Amino acid sequence: MTVAGHGHSQSGLQSHLQPLEHWSLAHGRTLDLGTRPLVMGIVNVTPDSFSDGGDFAQAEAAIAHALKLVDEGADIVDIGGESTRPGADDVSVEEELDRVIPVIEELKDLATPISIDTRHARVMTEAVAAGAAIINDVTGLTFEAQSRAAALKSGAGVVVMHSRGTPKTMQRSPRYDDVTAEVIAWLDHQVQLALQAGINRDRIVVDPGIGFGKNTQHNLTLLHQLEAFHGLGVPLLVGASRKRFIGELGNAPDARQRMPGSVAIALWAAQKGAQVLRVHDVAETRQALAVQAAIMGAGLSEFAGEAGA
Ligand code: HH2
If you placed Cys at 127, which of 99, 132, 275, 287 could pair as Cys (CB 3.0 to 4.6 Å)? Predict the structure, then answer.
């Protein structure tokens, strides 16, 4: 396919012609994609995530934080039990399940859908059975042979993210000839495999995987060329919140100090048509998006010329 997204991919994806109005999820749920970018709030039930490491490691703290994010306007709450930060150690599937299942069970009746951030087929299956409605896999359903079948059977919405290498190795001098074209080609292939497995297109969302096997320049190029991803014909999720390159660009070595840069990227991504934004700072992001939308909408208002101060 062409990077500009106006060509036909080898796999026949040409659905930039199709409207992307909703995202079909498990348990008969759907999310409206047509109105404004959705905000996915992050809850890590881990002792070692880079951005909020250890803050919500206990189930009660994770549940309280999820409820706070919902209050702040999260459209989705993303629950993860395994840190995927560069250099992170693997945790066992049992440990991951012990961390996330009690939290999902507690939140499953909220109007806000829960997503499970996992690479493991068994966690996908059990998390959706416990009430999660979306599977968010940073390996794009490639980490385990059973992942695609597990995702299919679950009925969940699926985030197919690009990554290169494993969390332990991915930042060892990543190399691309054309990062955007290569990430798009890989996502195109994975979307095709998911479709062939029987997962309906309206369940699939793609994500370039900012920071996963990419250096600062790669991340910036992907963000700069974000619109090219719409050629894949499925909605686009961007997750840059508090990532290391923001610290590098904005002189913020502590991840908790990276909210302003994260909001700047969320606004950029929204302007480039991203349908879902994965963020830690939900209230701040929603406020910034509301102001951005109001300014853009003002140009369309019939009263624009008469507006007072
Ligand atoms: N980034 C992280 C985790 N999950 N999922 C998607 N779809 N896109 C992302 O960019 C993404 C993701 C980052 O890793 P982690 O170390 O778990 O930190 P945190 O969850 O606090 O962002």
Answer: 132
Evaluate whether residue 161 is within a structural domain: yes
> How does pLDDT run across 211-255, given as a tens digit for each residue?
999 999 999 999 999 999 999 999 999 999 999 999 999 999 999
Ligand 1 lined by 117 (C-beta under 6 Å) = yes
Task: Look at ligand 1, atom 10, and give the residue with the nearest C-alpha.
Answer: 239
Residue 156 lies in a domain: yes
* Domains identified in the chain, total number: 1
- Domain of residue 46, CATH code: 3.20.20.20
Does residue 159's CB lie within 6 angstroms of at least one atom of ligand 1?
yes
> CB neighbours (10 Å) of residue 286?
22
Ligand 1 geometric centre to CA of 241 (Å): 8
Distance 27 CA to ligand 1 centre (A): 24
Q: Considering the domain boundaries, does residue 307 fall inside one?
A: no
- Dihedral angle over CA of 287, 291, 297, 298, nearest 10: 150
**Residue 134 CB less than 6 A away from ligand 1:** no
Q: How many CB atoms lie within 10 A of CB 138?
A: 23
Q: Tokens in use for 132?
A: 């999660």
Is pTM beyond 0.85? Reply is yes
Specify whether the CB–CB gap between 230 and 274 falls below 8 A. no
pLDDT bracket for residue 9 (50, 70, 90)? very low
